[in-house]
Structures are given as C-alpha cells and as structure tokens.
C-alpha cells in the first residue's frame, strides 16, 4: 500500500443545497475511505471544492440581484456546513473560482496550446432571439442522438452519460422557443490526439472498474470528438489569449483542475511540496456514473496533454445514482430530501449506516426507501450492533461493577470467539482496500451477530464457570467494534470508545488494533448508556407525506 494518498470527490455545483443523492455516490464513500486510510497510517488528504462557474450560476445570481461572486460564496459556505454536519471531513474545501485555480487553468491551457492540442474554430451556436443570448450547454434541451432520451441537456445526456455531438429537437430552456443558429469562434481541445494513450492508460490501470472501462473503451473505438472548451459568457476563467475578452472556459475544462490546484495549495500551505506529494500519492477521484465521460476521458487527456506533470488517477471509484422511493430525485417536483433537513431529524450516523449498506461498488443505481431505512436502523444497527455493545458493557457494570474480570481458562467457544477477533482485521481490511465498503460493513455486523450469539450461549447472568471469560472477550469485542466501525460511524465509534473507558480519540487508533485483545483484567469501564434510539413509524410516516408535496 502506498503511504501517501489524495482523495477527491466530484465537486458540488455552487447552485443549491446538498441532498441525499449527492452524498450517496461520492462524498460518503470518499469520506469512509479517507478515514480508513488514515487508520492504516497512510498520509491521506481529502480535498474538495465548490464548482463555481457556468451559466446556471450566472443567471441565478442575476435573478437574486447578487454578483456571481457573492452568490457562490454563499453556497460554498453552506455546502461546507452541510458536509460538516454529516461528518464528511474534508482536509480542505476550496473553490474553482480561487485565484490559484484561475492561474492553474490558464497555465494548463497555454501548455496545451503550445504543444498543439488546441485549435480555434468558427462554430454555429444556438442563440435565443427572445432572450438575446447565446445558449450554451444546459440552456438547450432536446433529444439525445445516442439513446433517444428526451429533455436532455445539450452538454450531457443524464440517461446514457454521453456528451451529444448535436442534440436533436433543440429548444431554449429559459423560454422554450426553438433557438436560431449564430456564428461564434470557440477554442477546441484535440481529444482525438489522445485516443491511443487513453486506451493504454485504461487497459494498464488494473484498479479501475472493469465494466466502466469496457464502455469507455467502446467510446474510444467509435472515435472521440474534439472538445469545445470555451463559452460566450462572462462568468468563468478568462481565456488567456491577447485580444479575446468575451470568452471564458467551459466549466468542465476548469473544474477538475481544481482537484490539483486545491490540493497543491493546501499541501504547500502546510509546508510540503504539493506537486511532489501529488506525484508520489495514490490519486482517488470518487464520482457518480453521470460524469464518467469527463473523468475517464477529458481529465486524463488533459493531464497527458501537459506531459503528465501531474499523475493520472489510480482509482476512479464510480457508483450509481440514488433514487428516492423508487423514483428519480427531482427538486422541482419536491421529490428529494435535503441533507440539512434530514440531519435535523436523524443523527448523521443513521444515514451513513443506511447509505453505505445499500451502496455496492458498481454502476447499479441504489434506492432510498423510508421503510427499508427504518428496518435497517432498528434491526441491524440497533437490534444487532447497538444491542451487543449495550449488553456486553451493561452486564459488566451490573455484575462486576464495571471492572473487567480475570478471564481464567478459555473453553472451545471462547477460543472460537477469540479467533473471530483476531480475524476481523483481515476480513474487513481486504474488502475496504477493494472499495467494497458495503461488504466490509456487513462483515462488521456479522461480527457483532456472532458475539450476540456467543453471549446468549454462555449465559453469563447464571454465573456459571466461564462467565468471566465471556465478559472479558465480549468487552474486547466491543473494543474491536469501536475501531472497525470508525470510518463508517465516527460519532458512534467515539461514544463506544468513551463508554469503554478508553482515553483519547478513537480516530487515532490504528486499523490493526481491532484484532488485538487490549483491554485487560482490572480495566474500569466508563459510563454506559444506549447508543441509539429506535426510529418511530410515526416519524417516518410524516417524512413520507412531505415528498411530492409542493408547498
Ligand atoms: Zn443518451
Ligand atoms: Zn429563450
């Protein structure tokens, strides 16, 4: 395992609040992985930024009578607060509109241009006579020429994940009129120059998901299309060419460069050589499947185009979309749940637990279901996990005054349970390293289910011989659970740690500690209380009623 890593997750667009769909596929898996790598002793930094540029932000800021700078400043701050409330712990949360990113984007453009990867071309652009403006990207909707999905943005089909060469049946998304076509000059990035190198990179990188690689390779075989990287709007990174004053870069040219510019700034500010650190690290970009094209083609091609001055990604963990009660999330139809609203009703760890448990390492979509949420929390998190922790610690307090007894001799059942503790680190660690976070969490639940049964079988309340060994091993199993569950449920993990009477912060414990018997006889537990509260049906019914209700 590399001793250094940089983790990023897809940048939130600074144009609205974070909702459950955002966190499921990217921020949560990235946060869990970062915490895991920290436990493994890797020097890892989790870097993110708000994605500040683009037409939608410009238009919306105008509507609200703010400058775009003021507008994105608000969302940058609000996003950071929402993420913090969900215990998404970025080492640095910056912005694509930072001075560092603007400079970096312009430098990258100049290098690409110098090496012959940029050309200028006159294009025909949609123009709305009614709104009197060019209509780039999201301002035109129509039918995807590849998969025939209707009402797709002209710059991205959300159905098949591709960037249409030309959308069919176009109409203005502001007023609905059919736009006319006007001439304008744009800059293009020669994506075609990189077909072979991209193909080599994809086939050579064994960490990338096979199924994603397969369809990206198909796109390359079908022939890549050069990429229009400028827009006729005022809000963006200015194109650094003399005499060009009215053009900025397209958001997808500048936003992923903020992974690098933000990481380098953070590392430099912390007394390191940011560029060197980047190139020595394992690079992870966590994304949802809607932006595969951008992360498997544009992003590596641009890094190849500047001579791999910054290394290409080692991992691009790609996951499916979240649906809500089996329907597509939609803010306009109020079929969505804001992260902030959710966290005012339930603890962050409930959502973290549920979302990880339903989220495989694959392109499959996942579905948030209120009834399933209730069952998972009440029976798995509370009935299994929480119950064992409370039972083991509660009994030790009741029968031994909270002092861990001398275990004496181990019988066969004890020995088996001791082995279960010893095996936990490899059982969970292997799955975590392979990005199978859902399966790793399941292993932890199997571990606590095992100890629930063990406790039940040994019947320590009868004070038979073997009571002491059962209590001794159960308390140590709780210690194992505290360490194992930390990347998933950081708050609950710390609560268990404190109840165990351990000093300091569980986050500083190394991953291997979960398989060690470290709590010895004579150790005094802390104060015990239930970790979780059951989810009540009535609260869930209320939540269900809110969906789809336009107030
Ligand atoms: Zn499509
Ligand atoms: Zn219009």
Note down, in words, how this protein is organized.
By secondary structure, the protein is an alpha/beta fold. The protein has helices at 20-39, 55-63, 68-85, 99-114, 195-204, 210-222, 251-254, 257-269, 274-280, 292-305, 339-345, 348-357, 370-400, 412-433, 437-458, 467-485, 490-499, 537-546, and strands at residues 4-9, 43-50, 92-95, 118-128, 133-134, 140-143, 152-153, 168-172, 180-189, 227-228, 230-231, 248-249, 282-288, 318-319, 322-324, 327-328, 366-368. The strands form five sheets. It has a five-stranded parallel beta sheet with strand order 3-2-1-13-14, with helices on both faces. A four-stranded antiparallel beta sheet has the order 5-4-9-10. Bound molecules: zinc ion (2 copies). One zinc ion binds at residues 144, 146-147, 149, 157, 159-160, 162.
In short:
Helix content is 46%, strand content 14%. The chain is an alpha/beta fold.
Radius of gyration: 26 Å
CA distance, first residue to last residue: 52 Å
Q: What is the count of β-strands? A: 17
- Taking all residues together, what is the mean pLDDT? 95
Give the overall silhouette: elongated
User: Can you tell me the residue ranges where pLDDT is under 50 for at least 5 consecutive residues?
Assistant: none
Helical segment tally? Answer: 18
Strand order of the largest sheet: 3-2-1-13-14
Q: Largest sheet, described in full?
A: 5 strands, parallel
Question: What fraction of the residues are assigned to beta strands by DSSP?
Answer: 5-15%
Bound molecules: zinc ion
Structural class: alpha/beta
Helix content: 40-55%
């Amino acid at each position: 395992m590399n001793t250094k890593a940089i983790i990023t997750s897809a940048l939130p667009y600074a144009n609205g609040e974070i909702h459950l769909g955002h966190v499921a596929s990217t921020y949560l898996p990235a946060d869990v992985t970062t915490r895991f790598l920290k436990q493994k002793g890797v020097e890892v930094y989790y870097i993110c930024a708000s994605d500040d540029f683009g037409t939608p932000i410009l238009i919306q800021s105008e509507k609200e009578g703010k400058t775009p700078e003021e507008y994105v400043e608000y969302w940058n701050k609000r996003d950071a607060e929402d993420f913090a409330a969900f215990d998404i712990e970025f080492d640095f949360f910056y912005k694509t509109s930072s001075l560092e990113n603007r400079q970096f984007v312009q430098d990258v453009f100049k290098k690409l241009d110098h090496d012959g990867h940029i050309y200028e071309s006159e294009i025909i652009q949609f123009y709305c006579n009614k709104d009197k403006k060019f209509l780039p990207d999201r301002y035109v909707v129509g039918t995807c020429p590849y998969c025939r999905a209707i009402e797709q943005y002209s710059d991205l089909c959300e159905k098949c994940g591709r960037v249409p060469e030309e959308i069919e049946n176009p109409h203005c998304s502001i007023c609905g009129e059919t736009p006319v076509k006007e001439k304008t000059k744009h800059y293009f990035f020669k994506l075609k120059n990189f077909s072979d190198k991209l193909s080599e990179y994809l086939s050579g990188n064994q960490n990338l998901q096979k199924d994603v690689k397969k369809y990206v390779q198909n796109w390359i075989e079908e022939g890549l299309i050069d990429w229009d990287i400028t827009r006729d709007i005022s809000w963006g990174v200015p194109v650094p060419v003399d005499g060009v004053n009215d053009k900025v870069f397209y958001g997808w040219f500048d936003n992923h460069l903020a992974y690098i510019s933000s990481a380098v700034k953070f590392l430099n500010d912390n007394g390191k050589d940011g560029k060197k650190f980047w190139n020595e690290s394992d690079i992870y970009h966590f994304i949802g499947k809607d932006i595969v094209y951008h992360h498997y083609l544009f992003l590596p091609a641009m890094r190849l185009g500047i001579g791999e001055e910054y290394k290409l990604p080692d991992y691009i963990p790609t996951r499916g979309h979240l649906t809500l009660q089996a329907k597509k999330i939609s803010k306009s139809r109020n079929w969505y749940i804001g992260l902030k609203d959710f966290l005012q009703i339930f603890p962050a760890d409930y959502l973290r637990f549920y979302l990880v448990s339903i989220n495989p390492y694959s392109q499959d979509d996942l579905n948030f279901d209120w009834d399933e949420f209730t069952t998972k929390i009440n029976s798995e998190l509370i009935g299994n996990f929480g119950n064992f922790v409370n039972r083991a610690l509660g009994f030790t307090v009741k029968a031994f005054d909270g002092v861990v007894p001398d275990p004496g001799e181990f019988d066969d059942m004890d020995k088996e349970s001791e082995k279960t503790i010893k095996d936990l680190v490899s059982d969970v660690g292997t799955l975590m390293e392979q990005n199978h976070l859902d399966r790793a969490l399941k292993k932890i639940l199997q571990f606590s289910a095992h100890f629930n049964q063990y406790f039940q079988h040994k019947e320590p309340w009868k004070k038979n011989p073997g009571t002491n060994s059962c209590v001794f091993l159960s308390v140590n199993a709780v210690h194992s659970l505290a360490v194992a569950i930390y990347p998933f449920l950081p708050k609950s993990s710390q609560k268990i740690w404190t109840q165990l009477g351990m000093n300091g912060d569980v986050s500083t414990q190394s991953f291997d500690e979960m398989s060690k018997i470290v709590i010895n006889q004579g150790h005094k537990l802390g104060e015990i209380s239930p970790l979780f509260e059951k989810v009540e049906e009535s609260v869930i019914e209320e939540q269900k009623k809110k969906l789809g209700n336009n107030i």
